[in-house]
Specification:
globular; mainly beta; 423 residues; 5 helices; 8-stranded parallel β-sheet; 10-stranded parallel β-sheet; 9% helix; 28% strand
Length: 423
């Protein structure tokens, strides 16, 4: 990982000296009375207002930068909602950094077949952000971020505490480091209904094999990972490091490598809290017989507390004292279903634009259904980036986008966005 190309994660770890943040036990939230960022949203940070009531910015071209580009909209300042009047693939060789708070990115507003960001990823370095219905696929082209930094999406603190970020219904794949990760001084983060797939195995990472799904990094507090599908990632489906509090509920993992749904910490310096329940792991061609659903490593701090229920096989390397009968991390409301129902529940609805998927997502979902496919070293092995149609649309936005005509708390613009997918 890097922050503005300066620090690597390991260097920042040395600077911080693995010193834990205070209030690890502050890991429960009741948002039952909150107006969620969109109807039906659940998880930590789902009470953010994101771009509600701000300026409307329209992405009108597929250029890497400049007026009307996705980069210009995400890097703009002030409260804002980003909508799209164009579909297709946006090619870039540099990550796009979100540095100013209060932002909604509504990928569902793009005309069919939607938007794919290719070649690099997005870095969220600001609070109160909602990103929905984008496909982000960095891949292994020679030009682009360094192999050890090339994530599809990163949430990372650079200047100050980052809070209330929701990543929902996105497709994140072909990262050469992780597909997605969180780092340092973060609070109230949710990943929901994402398709996190095909982290590249033997690719550009200097360490060699590095097919990774989701890393919850040091200092990440109150992170919920709910109702996502992970497919063809060797490891980190997800992994949680020390000094983190995480809720992992109702995720489906297909064809992991050595490690199944979670693998706890590589450093024993700090305790961590986690509630892990009703997740389903389905082995595939990349999964050895020795793999288990939940692994607790011997390096986990003995003061960690983990509540585990209905996840399948478990391997615990000498840390029996960390098990607890009371969930140490919780958020309300939260819908929890039996893991036996996850495949039928999640496969039709996860990822970007589930009724309008690109060839990559359709292939991965089909492989889960048919129990086929395996991990890949390069996107070239599966046909590369699809050639998306470049269509344009002229949207009739509400005349008063920031008003709330029906008095339900959501602006007229939000009501219009919420109605896009059914239409």
């Amino acid at each position: 990982m890097y922050l503005h190309g300066v620090y690597t994660a390991s260097l920042i770890g040395l600077i911080l000296g693995c010193k834990p943040r205070p209030d690890l036990d502050d890991s429960h939230r009741d948002l039952s009375e909150a107006l969620t960022v969109f109807p039906g949203a659940e998880g930590f940070g789902s009470d953010t207002t994101a771009g509600r009531g701000g300026e409307v910015l329209i992405v009108s071209n597929l250029k890497a930068a400049g007026p009307g580009s996705l980069r210009a909209a995400l890097e703009a300042k002030g409260k804002r909602t980003v909508v799209f009047s164009v579909s297709g693939t946006i090619w870039t060789t540099e990550d796009i950094t979100i540095a100013d708070p209060f932002l909604t990115v509504a990928g569902q507003t793009a005309p069919s077949p939607g938007i794919t960001l290719a070649g690099a990823g997005i870095r969220v370095e600001a609070s109160d952000v909602l990103i929905q219905h984008l496909r982000i696929r960095p891949g292994d082209r020679e030009e682009g971020p360094k192999g050890e930094n090339r994530d599809a999406l990163t949430i990372a603190n650079h200047h100050e505490l980052i809070a209330r970020v929701v990543i929902d219904h996105c497709s994140l794949s072909w990262g050469t480091d992780e597909n997605t990760s969180t780092w340092y001084d973060l609070e109230d983060i949710t990943y929901s209904h994402n398709l996190i797939s095909e982290g590249l195995y033997e690719s550009l990472h200097p360490e060699g094999e590095h097919s990774k799904g989701l890393l919850i990094g040091d200092g990440s507090r109150r992170v919920s990972v709910i109702r996502n599908v992970f497919a063809h990632n060797e490891d980190r489906n997800p992994v949680m490091k020390g000094d983190t509090s995480t809720l992992v509920v109702n995720n489906l993992v297909y064809d992991p490598g050595v490690f199944g749904i979670v693998h706890y910490g590589k450093r024993g310096c700090c305790p961590m809290l986690a509630t892990i329940e009703e997740n389903q792991v389905i082995p595939g061609k990349s999964t050895p017989d020795s793999a288990v659903a939940l692994t607790i490593t011997g390096k986990s701090n003995k003061k960690s507390r983990i509540y585990e229920r209905a996840n399948g096989s478990t391997q615990n390397d000498g840390k029996d004292e960390i098990w607890t009968s009371d969930p140490p991390v919780s958020v309300l409301p939260l819908t929890v279903v039996p893991r036996s129902e996850l495949e039928s529940l999640l496969l039709p609805v996860v990822g970007a634009r589930p009724a309008d998927r690109d060839e990559v997502d359709n292939r991965v979902i089909s492989q889960i259904i048919d129990r086929t496919g395996k991990g890949i070293d390069s996107q070239k092995q599966v046909g590369g980036w699809p050639d998306l149609a470049e269509n344009e649309a002229t949207w009739e936005l509400p005349s008063e986008p920031s008003a709330d005509d029906n008095g339900d708390g959501y602006t007229n613009l939000e009501e219009w966005i919420h109605g896009i997918l059914p239409r």
